[in-house]
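Progress report, Aim 2. The chain analyzed during this reporting quarter is listed below.
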Amino acid sequence: MSASREKQNRQAAAGQADPKTAREVQQRKEEKRTNLLYGVIAAAVLAAVIVSFVWRSDVIPKMTTAATIDGEKYTAAEVGYYYQTAYRNFLNQYSYFTSYLGLNTGATLKSQKLNDSAAAMLGIELPSAEGEGEGSEGAEAAPMTWHDYFLNQALDNMSVIQAALKAADAEGFQYPAGVQAEYDDNMAALKSTAAASGISVSQYLKGNFGAGVTEKVYGEQLLRVLRYSAYADAHQNSLSFSDSELEEAYDADRNTYDHVSYESVSISGTADSTTDAEGNTVEPTEEESAAALEAAREDAQAILDGFQDGGDLEALAQEHNGTYSQNESGNYSSGSVMSEWLYDSARKSGDSAVLEDGTIQYVVVFHDRFRDENPTIDIRHILVPLGTGSIAEGGEGYEDEQAQLKADAHTKAEELLAQWQSGEATEDSFAALAMTESTDGSKYDGGLYAEVYQGQMVAEFNDWCFDAARQPGDTGVVDTQYGAHVMYFSGVNINRWQSQVASNLRSEAYAAWEEELTANSTVVRNESGLKLVG
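Predicted structure tokens for the chain:
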């Protein structure tokens, strides 16, 4: 596989998983490389200048050593780059949860302690009041602040990057062209973003990364990060697994990879609240709540009895005020009453039952449990985005303008396809064209998305890719809500379940490799220099 799943995850928008399960904790560790790296300027919004930055000169942070990693010195400005990057990436990922986590983005991080909720979600063991806990050594330990957390993240990330770059140099690793292209794009975006904000690049960087982070410092660290990412991707992509290894890993954790098809009816057993004469809400009494739950149980049992007597489940749901649903490819959810029943190894096709989850009653009918044997595909594309219209939605002429913008994007895509066809017309030449012409994040990998599965992409894109007649080397133009896509079909890849298993194995192997890289690393902190960070 020529493009890493890690980089594809960076390019796709994804929600944050519930951090409570063991696998999800492991995933957070595996995603460190994805989330720690660099603050891409292209779509950045100018951040408010933090007051503590204002009075400092740029000279002191640029000259003062803040940390030494295996003998290599880093200034406060360089540490500040990674510190602010860790902080901003955290806010991007957890922006909706900052209040729950007790993080006040308007106050200094040095005065804010991690609360128990934040520590649990981040997998951090806080020291107890008696001094018990990580790093306390039997004495009462100082509580961890958010500043401590992001500083630790920064130094850990710097250690990993340094070790990986040294390993790449020792191997004589050749960095792909996408590294320089991405660097050039980001530096150009830095300049245009600062100009659009009406300030200099130096002012922009000082406001977003702190005193001392000049264009030179920013560029040097950005290039290190991009090179690290390319080397790490190459290492992870080099990991392969035999069919027997994939089967063994699948057998060890079938619930993660299997799907189920089933029908269900849900019935609420919660009593309704009422309103008094003055319009105030009156909560149901215990007796009313108990009666509502019992009524839901009776309805659920009546639906189950009717179904087992040959009735239609959807019709029975309507008759008893239940909500019917059908799922052809459900996933396992740890702790879910329904999932535990559906994924029971004793389950047989046609099994049915009433399940109670809190006040909700479920009538469930099991049909099948299976793994996804459908093949994945590899696809390259060049995205031509829609232009920006001048007419607001709903305004006169809006629809006509949008139609013209779509037509213009399609025409440009056709021109790019013709340009490619007039040249070498190879996959390599398509990748080169994608790197210069596409506006999608995959451009730095030559427009490649690897191991794409059925239903992953938007409908028009998906339908073209999974057309039964599709052959390697096929090209075309596909219009979606994002613009026009010049398509190149690279070919069929492994089955979806194999892709999922291999992805997890690669991530686990990568995490072990990264730990080995830094196992003997030594980080020496210079507190006088670190005072200038954050």
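Residues 146-171 form the longest helix (26 residues). The radius of gyration is 28 Å. These observations will guide the mutagenesis work planned for the next reporting period.
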